[in-house]
Amino acid sequence: MDTFTSRTAPLLAGKVAFVSGAGRGIGAAAVRLFAQEGARVVLAARTESQLDDVAGAVRAAGGEAEVVPCDLADTASVRAAVDRAVERFGRLDVAFNNAGVFVPPGPLDEVLETDFDRVYEVNLRGVWASMAAEVEAIRRTAGTGSIVNTSSVGSLAGNPVLPAYAAMKRAVNSLTESAARTYGPEGIRVNAIAPGNTLTEMIATWEDASPGLQERLVAQCPLGRGAQPAEIAEAALWLLSERASYVTGVVLRVDGGTRA
């Protein structure tokens, strides 16, 4: 007969975690949470001052954090950031690819070519570059590990409001599933989270461009509210941890039931 015991150890005890988009929103919440759960965290993003603030809070609470400025649109910058994680802490165990850019909402024919290219460079190519560098680092140091990518519920159906953003996030879902099948035999799990309406600067910017957007999003959500960034970070934490040891290739909706 199986017996069940309480698990009280921190979920990422002894792990080294790499987090992109770590200066604000979901990424910053994830850094704080991962550090609370025992990880030594490497923070990557373009804005170093934001990273310094988050890392400072982690250190003040007794955690370990390393700041690495990184441009997800620059493949060499991505690889250098992941390499820095290994140089600083000697290994890489888990990674949360959360960084992304957004463009003003509007129909496909009104998307500027420069905006489309920027979303592709960061939200898709940047995720691919991150995963490639992370797999190599995990394989070389920890041997096994876990990667989580940030997608969006907006990728799960046609999206007339954010067509470029949704297209790149849907491609991230495909990359996630392909990587899960490729690296599963090596003990590297790869999953994605698909947040819904989350109270971040991105949503605030969209609200400015499309007044009433937040009200409409809340009306579509069975829980009747937007998510706090920390609630999304909790889902990423679970997928990265050994609590999700038999989960890979999943795009997990974290949307308050909006797509139910």
From TrEMBL:
Broad enzyme group: oxidoreductase
Keyword annotations from UniProtKB, A to Z: NAD, Oxidoreductase
Domain Ketoreductase: 15-196
CDD domains found in the cross-reference section: SDR_c (cd05233)
E.C. numbers: 1.1.1.100
InterPro entries: KR_dom (IPR057326), NAD(P)-bd_dom_sf (IPR036291), SDR_fam (IPR002347)
Coiled-coil region list: none
GO MF annotation terms: 3-oxoacyl-[acyl-carrier-protein] reductase (NADPH) activity
Protein family (similarity comment): Belongs to the short-chain dehydrogenases/reductases (SDR) family.
Name the record gives this protein: 3-oxoacyl-[acyl-carrier-protein] reductase
